[in-house]
Design goal:
Strand content: 15-25%
CATH architecture of the largest domain: Alpha-Beta Barrel
Largest sheet: 7 strands, antiparallel
CATH class of the largest domain: Alpha Beta
Helix content: 25-40%
Structural class: alpha/beta
CATH superfamily of the largest domain: nicotinate phosphoribosyltransferase
CATH topology of the largest domain: nicotinate phosphoribosyltransferase
Number of strands: 20
Shape: elongated
Mean pLDDT: 94
């Protein structure tokens, strides 16, 4: 059996192994059948056959009407310097089933070893960004922060923070987010802090002494006592330093969370603390956001975004260059021919052949072509928007779609 040495792996210690960026770019993070395919093509003298591979999602998760295309900039970084030309819609574009998202043109032998990594990036990034966008859509003008790093392997912490933020969330909690993404991390305090102090008031005050100058304090108020009592204690003890209180009550203790929130809100209000905000975290997903969005000011969401429903993106040959002509061919169940995506005035999308005529929009409007040449023979020829610009693009589209 073939064996590829891992001499350049990054060894964090004797048990944690993370592939290096060079190994990923060289296509070594792949399924063995792609490695074998490349060797067979070389053996048969077919290593120079040129193809067009199309990236698309033929089926969205059940109940989803759209998804958010994400991961493009990372995928392009794997193809830079290689003899590949790439056409793609902008990162952050909302798309529907069967929409062509990207076309990669070049020798298949140059693509084979990269397919696994490219799809892994696009599928995971798109799934995270889509779930984040759905959560933000449901939350409306309420603050939503991503608290999900503890749900996944630390090696992908930046991936989780990046695409949850790109998907429209208001912030992330990861400490390294500022270093790598330019996004200042946000968060409150854990139960561990209060338990170590053994007294919630002492813990809140100590926290305020260290951080009150940086930002208003959000106190965790469900460690030892009833939530409404701790909330009132925090409001009295911290005064103007307190922005809000956070409820992270575990499901085993909750009952109906909305009732608990309403009790806290009522207690704060009748005691004159109407400006103290209420934030909720712990097992938050779409259903709980719909239930609580009218009675809280913000959410901390973790696992449901870190482990979202999978947006099944695939990559298939749709054209082969033979005898000087692009021949339109693909496997059964897929549409032959490389395609470009267009947006219509009513928000719907249509597509046509990449080199074909502009399609017609059902509403009679002039279609706007979304697919552009992004890379030409391994060189990026379009400006890649920043993370913040892509997030704004997502939020603008989010205003016009329905769940």
């Amino acid at each position: 059996m073939e064996r590829i040495d891992c001499e350049r792996c990054i060894l964090v210690d004797s048990t944690v192994i993370i592939p290096s960026i060079d190994e990923i770019r060289e296509g070594l993070v792949t399924d063995v059948y792609f490695y074998r395919t490349k060797r067979v093509l070389e053996h048969a003298g077919l290593q120079d056959v040129r193809v067009r591979m199309e990236v698309h999602s033929y089926k969205l998760p059940s109940g989803y009407k759209w998804a958010v295309f994400a991961g493009l900039s990372e995928a392009l970084s794997l193809m830079e310097g290689k003899d590949l030309t790439v056409y793609a819609v902008p990162e952050g574009t909302f798309f529907r089933e069967k929409a062509p998202l990207m076309v990669i043109e070049g020798r298949y032998s140059d693509m084979a070893m990269l397919e696994t990594a490219i799809l892994g990036i696009l599928r995971h990034a798109t799934s995270i960004a889509t779930k984040a966008a759905r959560i933000k859509k449901l939350a409306g003008d309420k603050t939503v922060l991503f608290f999900g790093l503890r749900s996944a392997h630390p090696a992908i912490s930046i991936v989780l923070d990046k695409y949850s933020y790109m998907g429209g969330l208001d912030g992330v909690s990861g400490l390294l987010a500022e270093k790598y993404l330019g996004v200042k991390p946000q968060g409150t305090m854990p139960h561990a802090l209060i338990i170590v102090f053994g007294d919630q008031v002492k813990a809140w005050k100590a926290y305020a002494e260290v951080y009150a100058r940086d930002s208003p304090i959000i106190a965790l108020v469900d460690t030892f006592m009833d939530e409404r009592m701790e909330a009132l204690m925090a409001a009295k003890e911290l005064g103007d330093k307190l922005l809000g209180v956070r409820l992270d009550t575990p499901g085993s203790r909750r009952g109906r969370m909305k009732d608990i929130v309403e009790e806290v809100r009522w207690t704060l209000d009748i005691n004159g603390y109407t400006d103290v905000k209420i934030f909720v975290s712990g097992g938050i997903d779409e259903d709980s956001i719909q239930e609580l969005r009218d009675v809280v000011d913000g959410f901390g969401v973790g696992t449901s975004i870190a482990w979202p429903k999978n947006v099944d993106i695939s990559m298939d040959i749709v054209e082969v260059y033979r005898n000087g002509v692009w021949r339109k061919v693909t496997k059964r169940g897929k549409l032959p021919g490389a395609k470009a995506l267009y947006k219509c005035g009513d928000g719907s999308q249509v597509y046509s052949l990449l080199d074909g005529d502009t399609p017609r929009c059902p509403d009679g409007s002039d279609p706007v072509r979304l697919t552009k040449k992004i890379m030409d023979n391994g060189r990026i020829v379009e400006r890649i928007p920043s993370l913040e610009e892509t997030r704004i693009y997502v939020l603008r589209q989010l205003e016009t779609v329905e769940l």
